[in-house]
Design a protein that fits this description.
heterodimer; A: 493 residues; alpha/beta; 7-stranded parallel beta sheet; 18 helices; globular; B: alpha/beta; TIM Barrel; 18 strands; 46% helix
Chain lengths: 493, 490
Amino acid sequence: MSTRTNQTINQTAQFRILSPDQKQRIFEGMIETLRDTGVHLHHEEARALLKEHGALIDDITVRIPQNLVLDALATVPPVTIVQSWDGTRKTRIEKNQVLFGPGPTPPNYTDPDTLERRKYVKNDASVVARVCEALPNIGFVQSLGTISDVTVSLADVYEFAEMIQNTTKPILSWSYTRDTCSDIHQIAVAMAGSEEAFKRCPNYVFYGEPISPLLSDFHAMDKLMYNAKHGIPQVYTPCCIGGATVPATHAGQLVCAFSESMLGVVVAQLLNPGTCVIMGGVQSIMDMQYSVYAYGSPELSLMSAALTEMAQYAGLPMFSTAGCTDTKTLDVQGAIEAATSVHSAMLSGANFIHDVGYFESGMTGSVLQLVMADEQIGMSHVVAKGIDVNEETLALEEICQVGPGGNYSDRDHTRKHAGALWAPTLMDRQGYEDWANQGQTTMRDRVIAKARNIIANFEGPISKVPPEAKKKIEDILKAAEEREAKKAAAEKK
Amino acid sequence: MLEKTMLIKMNQQAYGTTMFQILTEDQIEQIYYAALDVLEVSGARVLHTEALQLLQQGDAIVTDNDRVRIPASLVKQALQSCPSKAALSGRNGKRSIKLQKNEVAFGSGPDATFVYDLKAGERRKCTFADVEAAAKIVDSLPRFDFCMSFGVVSDARSPKTHDRHQFMAMVKNCTKPLMVTSADAEGLKDQWEMACLIRGGEKEFRLNPLFATYIPSDTPLVYPKEMVDRLLFATQKGIPAVYSSCSGMGVTAPATIAGVLVQTLADSLVALVLSHLQKPGVPLILGGIQTVMDQNRKSFHFGSPELHLASAAIAEVYKWLKLLSSAPGGCSDSKIVDEQAASEAVMSVYNGLMAGTNLIHHAGSLEGGLTASLAGLVMCDEIIAMVKQIGKGIEVTDETLALDLLQEIGPGGEFLSHDHTFDHFRDWFQPTVIDRSNWETWTNAGSKTYQDRLVPEVDRLLEAHQPEPLDAKLIQEMKKIISLADKKEV
């Protein structure tokens, strides 16, 4: 038998937007922007820290010398691991490791029963977490809403408390202030069992947001510093609106987005070298007809994939965007826009691909859109995996044995490999008559049925939550309520 | 304003488009050599006397009456003689489709039995009027580059001459190049004669083909007489032919993707050799449908991700062999235009474009190609536009990096009122049926779904679009050819 040598194989599909020279130029653009244009930083302690390390401070404007940026990039971790509170699930944050999940904080929610748009309530957080837990192609959890039926300033904490008990997939949490950021941290520690267990391996990721263009407000920076000090992996990413808050040209937008995240990376690495900071964000354009931030635009797909390449170039993990849409209801537009962005993001190799399940340009969350996108992610995955080419899969002997016009149905080779073919759960491949006899369902009908079925029947991990953790969470929430009541009283005075 | 000295950034290389690749050259080579092995070891069955003679004269080995084994040397000759460049023009003579490496054109699908009437909410048999309407829609849609028949004309005088009527319906209503299907070689001959009338002669057609002929095959490595007839006729007359090798994984082909690629390539190479032996140098575009199939209904699934992956990969193999490629895209297994049709269409259009497949056909086809839909065409036009926008990649220049602008506007500023934004926002994708209005605007307009908006858009196009008329005399001449055929068959 002869032997093959000098073989290169693609283990997955390869997809690129930017050439090495193009990446270098965008990188230089980021360095130049932080150094010459600078950023507005509304946080005195952070400014003092940066000044101490050589940044130029002019009132709230901070100009960061390039060595500070390069030093920060030298200490970012190549791999970070997040482990679920029950120890069953490990998530690696490293180059080209892809996960999809929903997004945080739309004010509205599509009720899966009535299909009406309504306010998001506390119970929705646990439902979304359970649905995410049940869907095989969803890898992390965000809430798809802002809880409206609890103390307003504690919506973030209640959301986290609900979600973490209903999923073992990593949550990307958010918070209003350093106080609630700390509450969430305490809940996570309670779920981990101990401070030591949490420190060894965190069980959630924090999500914070600078503002475009080139601005970090006090709370965003304050939370970033808290998480950096405690070694909690965190996302620090803007929502850049092309043509409104950043230039209309994509290269300029990438420079801006990159620079905004890099401020967070620099501060975090100064505070705690080696702590995980994830760059990225929502990158799209302003729809000039309706003045809406377009969540379904192909520009979102393109820029998100390109920014992912910049993150990989810099050695940072990437928080990307896909599966979202500008439609107001589950329809063909949502399917087109989600499929397009899902496949782009998958091929790009981004780490946390969020906003799966967003309707209405981020104004409404929908588990229906999430369930539909789960199927699209499954399809995209088949293509992204590429093709296994070896003696067995080439099937040369098999083809010769079967011969021209032969049948492969009853062959061992077929039996062995047919199981690896993708099995749809929402795509209907029946003939017209069978389909018609079964009620002529659209994919929308099947999505709704699947979502309702999960919500009604899938319990999730809640029964595994230790009673002592439950008790601790109640105490944390109680203490938080007292603190917020005091704050409110003080403000009234 | 800063003074600018002459500055040049040297040794720069940019990606002018996105870059996408499934297989490495080493992997492609393995598939190619395995296909050559198949042709030498097990070969093909050619059920056509003249073709068998050609093959025998060309140094192929014929045994058991119709079993042909083809040596690698003969394949190599055929590969060398096949041009890696061709072009198609519409009836106005403009070369609108370049067939060459990494040039992609999109078109509708052929020969559906049914059309789905979105307004009536039901499926019915396709008629001449449907084919005309589809050709008109294809003519009007900016992202459609070529036109296929859409559906089988069921109201033709004879079931065997529907192909001539389809040709008439298409060429009357669409100025874009056509990709035609024929019932048999006689049908192809009549279509070709009609095209020669339009072009003004055989030579003129040769120089500037109006259509490519689409020859599907669903029994890999078996060449029925009627199919070979069409292939040989096309080759003789210099009609660009699309040989579309269709196989169902685990039924008519191995269940592994690499295996189905090997068999498809072997099958296509036989067609290439036949074409070469008949007349070297006539363009042959290789394609096909590699997917999972329903064994009982003998139907191919048009929305499977295996199809999307295999189509992209086989295009890479053909590119490497310097051959032209075709594949389905924009098609679905759904019975109607719904979220499934949209998802499956996006995936095949996306991967087809990124892979650089030359002719992507079947856009808007439903139910595995059995049903056609005007609404599907209009939906696909928008999908293609979106995917093309991604395929453009990102331009990185001083103007687009806009560092000076960023400095001028500074942190916390806005770009909406700046000239730079005004100069560039038109480069973005502009939606047609997609709606980005806010909740209030949308509910005030009646809370319409995409499908709700699609129906009037189809009507609007049919109403508003007037294709450049075809000379009445020409139509009369063409009608003579058709009625001769009808008389012969009836």
